[in-house]
Write a structure and sequence with these properties.
Helix content: 25-40%
Oligomer: single chain
Strand content: 15-25%
Number of helices: 19
CATH class of the largest domain: Alpha Beta
Radius of gyration: 22 Å
Length: 500
């Protein structure tokens, strides 16, 4: 029942579960708080814990939403890596089950969610929409800040929203083995979790830098029965080729994708799963935004600004695409902002062109904002979001002008994360720290202008397994990468020449 609440996040104890009842809650003011994090006096804070007026406001959505159906210009199709012709369904069959191939190409507006998937969603959905009143107080801003929190899933992030249906569709078609890649480990964890529920074998190639830096993500996957390899590995031809060129390679998502795709393409009993970028993945994540629209309506709020972090783009799309539908229908008119790291700035520094989704050039060519398929972020980049390209559908929406993008350095992101953790209590994963930093920028701007904007932010997961990154920040050893323009240009030069 608690998950059906839309709560202010600054409750201390003893909130009433009776509809509409208010409580006066008490909290003490610490005399030892660092000056830059000291909250305003809160000897008494009035908090309203109210149920949504409409019981359906927090029902789990029964359908996924496909933004493509409402776009005035459809996105460019993926191309075959050898013929450069539009990909046909049979071209994808070695990698994906038939139903996911259909979802990848569909123009249908809504897709029914299978009952078996909804039953598992009930473990953590609906997820809470929380008002960050303590952060507002800390920033002394008139802005009203809300965040949609996806960290309550078993795997700790939004990734389970798509891992569960992907595994279910594979299980329905008799697939026994699944392979994938993972960067920070959130996607690998989510796929291992879902695979354990349906009895499928799961094999994961984890980017070497994250494999070494985040051992607990690896252990989490292994606990759910997955086999985990550091990437590049000597298990695949793609991995061995990279290791021959650079035995100490820190890896990249592009390399890890090449390894997983190679195994799927060469084993008839094995399929590949992807945690972001593709249309069917963004489709599954739309449950986030569909819930959030109803939750905001129930409390009488309309967002002026919606902010989400972007790596491959699934979390951002999941929150914003249903709102973009409402914007296209003339019901609301929020600014929509994607936030990426300056260490891997595909939207703000990349080019919009056809490029491979992996380093070895085995995947279809996708029209997307890209830094080049062999781009490798610096391993000292702690903030996640390491993929060289942006989801083609998000790239298309960006080109159509329905959203904006900004890149923020990692020290500012972690400064914001510390402020958030010490005011709101939740420790964010490194990825949503980008959205937090952008939210703080806007909230401080509202303090200067006096505007009481409503800011909605995507909080896509918790950072319990990412504490080494926080340790770097707290010890003062985290640095902002001075990004090399030459490195970007060298990578972009290797994009296929058909790019325009």
């Amino acid at each position: 029942m608690a998950q059906s609440l839309v709560l202010s996040s600054n409750f201390c104890s003893n909130f009433s579960s009776r509809k509409g009842e208010e409580k006066w809650l008490w909290c003490s003011k610490s005399k030892k708080s660092p000056s830059h994090l000291r909250l305003s006096s809160c000897s008494s804070v009035k908090v309203t814990a109210s149920y949504n007026a409409n019981p359906q406001a927090t029902d789990i959505p029964r359908q996924w939403y496909n933004l493509i159906a409402d776009l005035p210009i459809k996105p460019p199709p993926p191309l075959h890596p050898k013929t450069f012709e539009p990909v046909k369904p049979e071209d994808l069959s070695p990698l994906f089950p038939d139903e996911l191939i259909k979802q990848e190409a569909t123009n249908d507006r809504f897709i029914d969610i299978p009952e078996e998937v909804i039953d598992i969603y009930k473990l953590w959905r609906p997820t809470p929409l929380i008002r960050a009143k303590r952060l507002e107080k800390l920033l002394n801003t008139p802005a009203r800040i809300y965040y949609k929190y996806e960290g309550g899933s078993p795997a700790g992030s939004h990734k389970a929203n798509t891992s569960v249906p992907q595994v279910w569709y594979n299980a329905q078609e008799g697939v026994k083995n699944l392979v994938t890649e993972t960067g920070a480990g959130q996607w690998g964890s989510a796929l291992a979790f879902a695979s354990s529920l349906f009895g499928l074998n799961c094999e994961v190639w984890q980017v070497r830098a994250s494999y070494d830096q985040k051992p607990y993500r690896k252990l989490m996957m292994q606990t759910w029965g997955a086999k985990v390899h550091p990437s590049p590995s000597d298990v695949t031809q793609a991995g061995r080729k990279i290791l021959q060129m650079d035995p100490s390679s820190p890896g990249s998502l592009g390399i890890a994708i090449s390894e997983a795709v190679e195994v799927a393409a060469t084993h008839a009993d094995t399929k590949y799963c992807l945690g972001s970028v593709l249309n069917h993945v963004l489709l599954h994540q739309s449950v986030i935004g569909e819930e959030c629209i109803k939750q905001m309506e129930a409390i009488g709020e309309t967002p002026d600004l919606i902010i989400g972090c972007t790596g491959g783009g699934s979390n951002f799309a999941g929150l914003t695409f249903p709102f973009i539908r409402e914007k296209l229908n003339g019901k609301i008119n929020p600014r929509i902002q994607a936030v990426e790291p300056t260490a891997c700035p595909s939207l703000t520094k990349g080019v919009y062109a056809y490029d491979f989704g992996d380093t070895a050039g085995m995947t279809p060519l996708m029209k997307m904002h890209t830094l080049g398929h062999d781009f490798i972020p610096d391993p000292i980049h702690a903030g996640g979001l390491r993929y060289h390209g942006m989801a083609p559908l998000i790239s298309h929406v960006y080109e159509l002008g329905y959203m904006e993008a900004v890149a923020i350095p990692q020290t500012e992101c972690f400064q914001g994360a510390i402020q958030f953790a010490r005011s709101e209590g939740l420790i964010p994963a490194p990825e949503p720290t980008h959205a937090i930093a952008a939210t703080i920028r806007e909230a401080l701007r509202c303090r200067e202008t006096g505007e009481s904007k409503v800011i909605l932010m995507a909080m896509c997961g918790h950072g319990h397994f990412d504490l080494p990154s926080y340790e770097k920040y707290l010890q003062g050893s985290m640095v902002d990468l001075s990004f090399s323009e030459d490195k970007i240009q060298a990578s972009l030069a290797k994009i296929p020449q058909l790019a325009s």
